Amino acid sequence: MAGALSKRSPRGVNHSGASAEAERPRHPISNDVEFADRKVGKRMISESTCAMQCRAKVISLATLSQENYRVRLECPELAQVILPGQFFMLRSPDRTDPLLGRPFALYDTYLENGKPVGIDVGFHVVGKMTALLEDVQPGQNLEIWGPLGNGFPELETKHLIQVAGGIGYTPFVAVSREALLQKKYGQTQRTGIRAERASLIYGVRSACFQANMDDLSDLNELDIQICTEDGTAGHHGLVTDLLKPLLESGSADDQVVLTCGPLRMMQAVSELCSKYDVRCWASLETPMACGFGACFSCVVPIKTGEGSWDYRRSCVEGPVFPAKDILWGDIS
Ligand SMILES: Cc1cc2nc3c(=O)[nH]c(=O)nc-3n(C[C@H](O)[C@H](O)[C@H](O)COP(=O)(O)OP(=O)(O)OC[C@H]3O[C@@H](n4cnc5c(N)ncnc54)[C@H](O)[C@@H]3O)c2cc1C
Ligand code: FES
């Protein structure tokens, strides 16, 4: 955490000196009352209450682009309950290195005879676990536990704008399908995300890192806008260059932005949304050790009221937070 935070008060006490819990008894991720009043956010806490641990069989591995892959895992119990924006931990049962599981977002579920029987994981190779995943063979087992985290809120909007950077686009496959009524996730009573129109702004460093959009090719209604930092595909520039005209083209009440990707990209998206008074939720990719709330390795500073803040565990109270509540400058 940045130095500014280390001078502040200890966990559980806000910097105005009062107990954050006493001052604001509601769960901090219910901070979206303002959003709820504007009839877009109903739920911030997952309806799936129990995470499960199981062995998942590798079904297939596909290449999405340079260093980006999709692995398909058979795990019906998890596939039937997991929601867009939730995640799970993965590790190899046959090894102690890496010892800890690694968090991955739901990319999509896959169905057999109309029922979810497994999940797809989109990943970018950065280190030990993802290098192992790059080499998995069909039939091999992985240890998986989930669903974890809150997922994106149930919401209804005229225009859903998803802004992704790099591998941060993975949650938006399931979100787009749900929003455009193409697929249901989780339990049947869930309303989920609903949008009259959906856009995906997807930025990468260079064209070679841009995942092919084959897994979304059947979603004709989804407006996909690509940008690259080096101009090798799509717009030459940043995701915010593409977001700004979209925000300007509609009314704030009719738009909702969801974002996932590099921290500073999400901060820029959040600041732009604040400027246009558009509601925005961010899915943080905070490094995690346990994934279920025990180790506090994943805490992030979140506003808990006027002038006060406290740490929240990204794995339990997140990873999705109202972007306006995240103290972006205090996350390193
Ligand atoms: C809720 C959540 C969902 C995620 N979903 C996905 C996903 O769908 N696909 C995907 O590819 N990745 C996802 N990530 C990131 C993923 O967990 C890390 O890339 C993964 O832990 C790397 O494991 P590794 O063993 O390969 O790398 P490691 O050997 O653990 O690390 C390699 C390098 O990457 C850095 N690193 C590791 N994790 C992070 C992180 N979270 N942020 C910034 N730097 C990091 C390390 O500091 C190190 O320098 C998600 C993270 C979170 C918290
Ligand atoms: S990862 Fe352990 S508390 Fe969040």
From TrEMBL:
The gene is pyrK. GO terms for molecular function: oxidoreductase activity. Pfam families: DHODB_Fe-S_bind, FAD_binding_6, NAD_binding_1. Residues 1-30 are annotated as: Disordered. It comes from the Bacteria. This is Dihydroorotate dehydrogenase B (NAD(+)), electron transfer subunit. Residues 51-154 form the FAD-binding FR-type domain.
